Amino acid sequence: MDYLALYVTVKLAVITTVFLMLIAAPVAYALAYYRFAGKSFLEALIYLPMALPPTVIGFYLIIIMGPKGFVGKIAEFLTGDSLLFTFTGIAMASVIYSFPFAVQPMKAAFSRIDRRLLESAYVLGLSKRATFFRVIIPNSLAGIAAAAILVFLHSIGAFGVLLMVGGSVPGETKVASIAIYEAVEMMDYRAAGMIALSFIPISYAFLLLINKLNEGSHK
């Protein structure tokens, strides 16, 4: 079994999940509670990665993150290295690819909160920031946890986007899904089967957890 590919996969999924939990929460809050011009267009743009084929996303990320792209130029200026075929590059691609899977469940969780709780918090003198951390977050833990699980599962299963942006550099960008693909190409079905089998209990356990969280939130 390619343990190195599994390590890179888990590392990528953890980093993607932690980063998205931090940046998606305020975005989901704004979408749930604010009205502003162009909101529907912004929301559609955020959810666009859910509708586009992974290869399309990967292609445009190559353009943006490549030597001639504006993100690629900034990265090369700051670090002297290209983002393509690096772990940093696939981490950025994973964050963009999984962004809507973090925002959507959190927005739904925030929207379900009784507005009277928020009004009471404002009457008691809490600022919007304090209300977010002391009222909204504690009452949305099930939705936030579900978002984290969905992002993690989506990240460990990513293939097309990561292959295009990162290729298959062992220990750097070669994740489990790419290792399975390469093993099948070499007709090494035993190796492919071992890696594939490792995904089943992990994914099943997380899906059970999501179901439990959803059951608990509806009680």
Tell the overall outline: globular
Note the beta-strand portion. under 5%
Number of strands: 0
CATH architecture group name: Orthogonal Bundle
What is the count of helical runs? 11
Count of domain modules:
1
Using the coordinates shown, work out and report the CATH topology.
MetI-like fold
Ranges where pLDDT stays below 50 over 5 or more residues in a row are none
**Gyration radius, in Å:** 20 Å
| Average pLDDT rating | 90
Order of helices and strands: HHHHHHHHHHH
CATH superfamily assignment?
Answer: MetI-like
Structural class, from secondary structure content?
Answer: mainly alpha
Could you please describe the fold and organization of this structure?
- The protein has helices at 3-33, 39-51, 54-65, 70-79, 87-111, 115-123, 128-136, 141-156, 160-166, 176-185, 189-217.
- It is mainly α and 219 residues long.
- It has one domain (3-217): MetI-like fold.
- It is globular and about 65 Å long.
Could you provide a short overview of the structure?
This protein is an all-alpha fold and 219 residues long.
Helix/strand layout:
Elements: H1 3-33, H2 39-51, H3 54-65, H4 70-79, H5 87-111, H6 115-123, H7 128-136, H8 141-156, H9 160-166, H10 176-185, H11 189-217
Features:
MetI-like fold; 219 residues; 11 helices; mainly alpha; globular
